[in-house]
Amino acid sequence: MKRAILAAASLLLLTACVSNDATATPEAPPGINEAGTLPPGEPDVNGDGKVVIGVLSPGDINDNGYYESFVVKAEAFATKQGWQVIKRGSVPVAEALNAARALCQQKVDMVAIGAAELKDAIPASTEAVCQKTAWYVPSSANVAQTPEITLSSDDPNQSMLVAGYAAGLLMREKGTTKAGFVSGPEADFTVVAATAFKAGIREIIPEATLVTTYAGDFNDSGKAREAANAQISQGVGALYPYLGGATDAATALANEKKLITLTPGTDRCDSTNPAFDVSVLFDPGDYFEAALTLFAAGQLRMGVTKVWQLGVDPYPTVKLCHGTPEQNAKLAAFIADIGAKKIDPAAEVKKLGN
User: Which CATH number describes the domain made up of 156-282+314-352?
Assistant: First the structure.
């Protein structure tokens, strides 16, 4: 589940540009950034007569969430185009560089990194083995732009502030002032997420408190359940499992206690086992699909960054799964004000998150 933190192009709704004809090239979205460089022959960058997308993920690509969405969207798009996808999940950070080299040796036309934790793979983009490849990387603050890669970025302060705001609306109705946040390692991006989430709740409930637990692993269901149980014993009324493969285990416990629950990146409002009350959407698969649309049109440039804006672009965004008309209207207005720059998320987090 990470953002890459959770992460190409400036854009229409992401599937709108895909032709129903599996052999057709999708029309590129308007407003292409003319900066950067276009790899010759894109999408068949290596000129071997076929298009192969290589995907590396640090997490479980069957996690029913953040990591899986990246691969699922890639495979769906590739199938329509007659492309091939080579994928590898649960790549250790220490093996990122060699894993990227191995993909290039398999003649992929694009190396796509599923999350920024695998940033150590990026130096391969300048090596001879990867000379004829495009690179897609979800960005975070510690990923530097280089001429060989395209970065996709969003601001976690935006989506996590709004996630907290949405939770606050439901918490106020339920009469609870304490929420829980369970995540993996205590890293910069998880701390930022927890802080912004707390600030968002306090937009609605100024006296709200947040119990934060860093379980050390995004995918260990046992650790997630232990952390969730500890927070439940402390009386939280909402639980945010900011996790990967362990999301459902923690959410199932929250469901048993009828706690308010949120998704870590994808839309699961239709899920019933487990069930969610808020979908927080920073789905890396949606961002990646937009990049693939440009790639298919021969217009995905390297050396540039697409920054996705809440309230402006289709994603990131937040929705209440079963909100009342009044709650939905308040949430929509809050999102619109961020998009119009009437609300500065960073300033709100600084003011309310500590």
Answer: 3.40.50.2300
